[in-house]
Design a protein that fits this description.
heterotrimer; A mainly alpha (330); B alpha/beta (277); C mainly alpha (287); A: 330 residues; Arp2/3 complex 21 kDa subunit ARPC3; globular; C: 287 residues; mainly alpha; 2 domains; two-stranded antiparallel sheet; 11 helices
Chain lengths: 330, 277, 287
């Protein structure tokens, strides 16, 4: 997961530092408020712990071993902001005396391992867990958090590497476009590294919970915040839904071809499909504002409107059912 | 003599519910050398931490230099800074004690954070290195030091602020004979200079070497004895009761002996003709 | 106290020689044990001001990341090796990671030599798969660049102790909280690593062959949990030790001495070399 020096261009590694600087500043400010004098020694020991975890070998198969990252674990126990600083320090210690990781790429490595993994893992854990979890639920939530966090970071690395040909065509950096880099990063993390991280995170959290439940005590997260978190995640993923088909030149989703597309593909339109297409004319076809072509902005706008509409209908239905239940009871 | 520390029915319970110290009443005067004796987990470390305002009593009162110790009176206050300058604490865990990169930085940490001017710090570091024979290892990293060197550096570092009181938690634990002797000599020098010493230990030999008074903690975390050290150390029944000595039995041919025994001091005893197999 | 029968049994005869199967525990324990103890600086090392080392070497690393031509990168790599050795890096410390980096980067870049990734005049073509000249050129560029950056990095780390480099970050206005965390983290990572190593060795002394890998993973994960608990306890104790000596949330470093003329000269020389490589050799300005 570490990107060494020399692989990526200055626009990308410069952007890494530019993104991380305010995040480090924010983390430091937030922690100063909440942790005060204990901040430095506790974060330092967290960093030392993270370093040692990243140094360990986990048996995978035969003699094959993998290195856990442990960032999700630190985030679940200490919170994402503390994990951000602790993991950043661990990466700095890795880079300086042990020469593992890069100096120009330090910002980007921190973005991937000290921001994406902790925040995604912590967010997933918060969403999946209630205040008094059963051991099984705790295990599953921790495993899912560890898995999702590291896969998200792997995807980020794939994108950062994959945009090099676009950003620096003459710069002679890693030449693999997103279509190649993203699957190359995702597949091993989805199949091997992710499950290892999931098991390590889950078993470590379960062990800590058994010895001292307070260590992983979860503050209740209100329904509104849960919804807001889900909405934020969806919002962040939406651009991917627009960009990925472009990058992979995927065209329309399989099986969702319109009449025009079918005619282009097959040379004719099957009779039944032609008849069916005359039954209903969508008011907002192809996510375009009526009378205009579909653009990324119109797609987002229309999708938002559709989401709000669906949520309103669902809310109305639930209210009706509840009211019906109350009437039946009385 | 002025009273330096006063405990009035002070108790401390750890957050998990385990008792640390129970109902302790104690006075320590300036210039006294006191040994806090007790077995493991009897409350010795807890007592020292209460005296240094690192933790605060859950009931009762702890005072130092005439002021009650509480978070309000010590956190970020002028009295708090005064306390840090006057009271030095040598931790049992030497790894926690030494947290700087090099010996020199370790020696300078306390004075620097207590506002001592930089030129004075440099002077003090030089003097304390001479006192504790740290000249050769002054620029070395802490990680590379041996156990004995770490203990010496730890004591030098806490003394660098110029305290009037030194609290020591098991200072000779894990030391070889030479380093132990060096440490004891240093403590005797401090005692001669009129420093108040409070040494928490279960090493009875150390206690009798450096202290004139002993406070004994029982396994129930209460003070069970407080007085001159000679009679307390001689009271083997008391020491056996609080697990500072153990009952030792062995055979001389057919004669079986059982008697209280502690491992420091000569192994001499009378043969009781009545104790036969 | 009479011993049970199985404790009283005499030892069986030792087995004959057999094929060695290195277990993951041995690998893990060796890896933990290989964490270097701090090497004390030689007289050469203490001469290099850490701020000058950072400015000089990081400037050269940034330069290396901007170079595109093979000539410039080859010269840059030679400079990096020379500098690293000059400031005291041992040949093995330089050679082993460089070989590993060359191999790994070469393997990662190999597909780039194929005409599907880097089109151009083919050098070798087999069954429709062609290795192109631009592709080979690109592989060489990235490998050389990686090696140069690595060697400059090794030179930086060899020029000063890690703690001195971290402490010097304050001079660059890195907030004291970060520097304090870094310094303490470095101080305690070997303490925790030793704890982890002891646990591995304890298991190794009781387990001949690991039959159940998932059980081993679970054991390791629980040890990681225990290590975390221990790191928190140690953190609490260190915190008490710090406030007992007057620490009040602001890590105050020892003041810096003024940089000597030869250190400023070193920085200037590094940046001049970087400018020469980038602007003259690589970009061809003024030629």
């Amino acid at each position: 997961m570490h990107i060494p020096d020399g692989y990526i261009g200055p626009q990308t590694y410069g952007a890494g530092y530019a993104i991380m600087a305010p995040i480090w500043a924010a983390a430091s400010r937030i922690l100063k408020r909440t942790v005060s004098r204990k901040q430095i020694p506790m974060l330092a020991l967290g960093a030392a712990f993270s370093f040692v975890v990243m140094f360990l070998n986990v048996p995978v198969m035969g003699r094959l071993t993998a290195h856990p990252v442990g960032a999700g674990l630190v985030a679940i126990v200490c919170g994402p902001w503390a994990a951000c600083i602790a993991i950043s320090a661990a990466l700095a210690v890795q880079a300086v005396p042990f020469g593992d990781g890069g100096i120009t790429t330090f910002g980007l490595n921190c973005l991937n391992m000290a921001v994406i993994i902790p925040f995604v893992s912590w967010g997933a854990w918060k969403l999946l867990l209630s205040t008094k979890p059963t051991p099984r639920r705790l295990w599953l939530a921790s495993a899912a958090a560890g898995y999702i966090g590291i896969v998200a970071a792997a995807a980020a690395v794939g994108i950062e590497v994959g945009v090099q040909p676009m950003l620096s065509p003459r710069g002679m950096y890693l030449p693999y476009p997103v279509q190649v880099a993203l699957p190359a990063m995702l597949i091993p993390h989805l199949l091997i590294v992710g499950p290892i991280e999931a098991v390590i995170t889950a078993a470590a959290i379960s062990y800590l919970y058994r010895t001292d439940p307070q260590v992983v005590a979860s503050q209740p997260i209100s329904v509104a915040r849960r919804f807001a978190l889900l909405a934020l995640v969806t919002l962040l993923l939406v651009p991917l839904g627009l960009l990925l088909p472009n990058w992979f030149r995927a065209g329309a989703a399989w099986g969702e071809w319109g009449v025009d597309e079918l005619k282009q593909m097959l040379g004719y339109v099957p009779h039944g499909i032609a008849q069916g297409s005359r039954l209903w004319h969508a008011p907002i076809p192809d996510y375009a504002v009526p009378g205009h072509e579909a653009t990324p902005v119109s797609i987002v706008f229309v999708a938002l409107a559709g989401t709000i509409g669906t949520a309103a209908v669902a809310y109305g239905v639930v209210r009706l059912i509840k009211r019906g239940g109350k009437d039946a009871a009385s | 003599m002025d009273e330096t520390f006063a405990l009035d029915r002070a108790s401390y319970t750890y957050p998990g519910g385990q008792p640390g110290l129970t109902d302790a009443t104690l006075r320590i005067r300036a210039g006294e050398q006191v040994a806090i004796l007790g077995a493991n987990a009897s409350g010795k470390s807890t007592l020292l931490r209460l005296l240094d305002a690192l933790i605060f009593s859950t009931s009762g009162k702890v005072s130092a230099f005439g002021r009650e110790l509480s978070e309000a009176s010590t956190d970020g206050t002028a009295f708090g800074r005064f306390l840090r300058r006057q009271v030095a604490f040598l931790f049992q865990n030497v790894e926690a004690q030494l947290f700087c990169a090099t010996v020199e930085e370790e020696l300078g940490f306390g004075p620097r954070h207590l506002g001592v001017p930089e030129d004075k710090i440099v002077e003090r570091i030089g003097q304390i290195c001479n006192m504790f024979r740290l000249g050769e290892i002054r620029r070395r990293s802490v990680q590379s030091l041996s156990g004995g060197e770490k203990r010496r550096v730890g004591l030098a570092a806490v003394l660098a602020v110029g305290p009037s009181v030194v609290l020591l938690d098991e200072p000779t634990a894990g030391l070889d004979p030479r380093n132990r002797a060096l440490l004891v000599d240093a403590l005797l020098d401090l005692a001669d200079a009129g420093k108040t010493l409070v040494v928490a230990t279960h090493d009875l030999e150390l206690a009798s070497e450096v202290a004139s008074r002993a406070v004994v903690l029982g396994e129930d975390h209460t003070i069970v004895a407080d007085g001159d050290i000679g009679p307390i150390i001689a009271d083997t029944d008391l020491l056996a009761e609080v697990n500072l000595v153990h009952l030792h039995s062995h055979r001389h041919w057919r004669v079986l002996h059982a008697h209280p025994h502690y491992h420091s001091g000569p192994h001499e005893h009378e043969h009781d003709p009545g104790q036969q197999e | 106290m009479p011993l049970p029968e199985w404790l009283n049994e005499p030892p069986p005869p030792p087995p004959g020689p057999s094929r060695r199967r290195k277990s993951w525990l041995t690998t893990a324990a060796n890896r933990l044990a290989s964490l270097p103890t701090q090497r004390e600086p030689s007289a050469a090392l203490v001469r290099m001001d850490p701020r000058a080392a950072i400015l000089g070497f990081v400037g050269l690393i940034v330069c290396a990341t901007l170079l595109r031509s093979l000539t410039a990168l080859a010269l840059c790599w030679l400079l990096s090796v020379a500098l690293a050795l000059a400031v005291g890096a041992r040949p093995r410390t330089l050679g082993v990671p460089s070989a590993a980096a060359a191999l790994l980067t070469g393997l990662a870049m190999l597909p780039a030599a194929w005409n599907g990734i880097t089109p151009g005049p083919p050098l070798v073509a087999v069954a429709g798969i062609a290795v192109t000249m631009p592709g080979i050129h690109l592989v060489a560029v990235v490998v050389l660049r990686t090696l140069a950056c690595l060697a400059f990095g090794i030179g930086l780390f060899a020029s000063n102790r890690a703690e001195d480099l971290f402490a010097a970050l304050r001079w660059f206005r890195v907030p004291s909280v970060f520097v304090g965390v870094l310094l303490l983290a470095y101080r305690y990572l070997l303490v925790l690593a030793r704890a982890a190593l002891e646990v591995h060795m304890a298991r190794r002394s009781r387990v001949a062959e690991e039959a159940d890998l998932s059980g081993a993973r679970r054991w390791l994960a629980e040890r990681i949990g225990a290590l975390f608990a221990r790191s928190r306890e140690l953190g609490e104790e260190v915190h008490l030790a710090m406030i007992a000596r007057g620490f009040d949330n602001e890590w105050l470093p020892a003041p810096y001495s003024r940089m000597r003329a030869r250190h400023v000269g070193w920085i200037a020389a590094c940046w001049a070399a970087a400018a020469l490589l980038l602007l003259v050799v690589d970009r061809g300005l003024w030629t």
